[in-house]
Amino acid sequence: SNAAFNATVRGFMHRGKDMIDWVMSSADDKYHSANFRLNNVGVEALANVSFPQIFGPRCLLQTLSLGYTYIHQKRFDDVEVFKSNYALDYLRHKFTANLSHRIVSHLSASWNLRWQDRTGGYIEYVEHKATGNLIEYKPYAVLDLKVQWTRPSYQLWASINNLTNHTYYDFGNIPQPGIWMMAGGSFR
After folding, report:
1. How far apart are CA 148 and CA 183, in angstroms?
2. Each residue of 10-26: pLDDT tens digit?
3. Radius of gyration of the chain from Cα atoms?
4. How far apart are the C-alpha atoms of 49 and 61, rounded to whole Å?
5. Which residue has the higher pLDDT, 116 or 128?
6. What SS3 class is residue 145?
7. Helix or strand or coil: residue 52?
8. CA 148/CA 15 separation, integer angstroms
9. What are the DSSP calls for 110-128, one per residue?
10. What three-state secondary structure class fits 51?
11. What is the DSSP string of 54-108?
12. Do residues 79 and 54 make contact, with C-beta atoms less than 8 angstroms apart?
């Protein structure tokens, strides 16, 4: 569309009956299957601004996109769960922001920020052995940058992910990569 600003808000509900998950009842337990009845209720909000629509085609700023998702989960049982492998470890909050702008001529950049907060936790390992300690996931933010040179017949790009070199755990007990770079191109 040609609108300078647009926004949407959506609600959703997932009713789960006999949801299968792999769980541990205690730190000494081995994973075993379990069934849950649980509902996930959430809301998603998205907003976009097109700066050239407001300030004209020569504007260096191109677009700003913001998004937020929230999920609330309700279980309908009182079974004690020490560690869930899937169903009970979910993103409660997720915020995203993307800003794209021209730098000069055919060179542009896109900045992506993601902040998320996951429920649940992971089992701590020291020297490849489980300690039995459950570490709660901590909220984290990651900033990525992509720079691209665009022409009608080709595009060259380079991206730097995790620009702040932040150590974080998204899912499981595996630290995610620090700063890393990729480059590429496409031709028509």
Report:
1. 9
2. 999 999 998 899 999 98
3. 21
4. 10
5. 116
6. strand
7. helix
8. 43
9. EEEEEEEEE-SEEEEEETT
10. helix
11. HH-TT-SEEEEEEEEEEEEEEES-----SEESSTTS-EEEEEEEEEEEEEETTEE
12. no
The token duo for 84 is: 């869930």
Which tokens is 59 given? 């504007």
Quick one: average pLDDT of 148-168? 95
Range 10-17 contact pairs with CB under 8 angstroms and sequence separation of 24 or more: 10/43, 10/44, 10/45, 11/41, 11/42, 11/43, 11/44, 12/40, 12/41, 12/42, 12/43, 12/44, 13/39, 13/40, 13/41, 13/42, 14/39, 14/40, 14/41, 15/39, 16/40, 16/87
Q: Give the list of residues 6+ apart from residue 57 with CB closer than 8 angstroms, or none.
A: none
172 pLDDT exceeds 80?
Answer: no
Q: What's at 129, amino acid-wise?
A: K
Q: Return the number of other C-beta atoms located less than 10 Å from residue 46's C-beta.
A: 15
Q: Which residue has the tokens 């480059």?
A: 183
Amino acid at 138: K
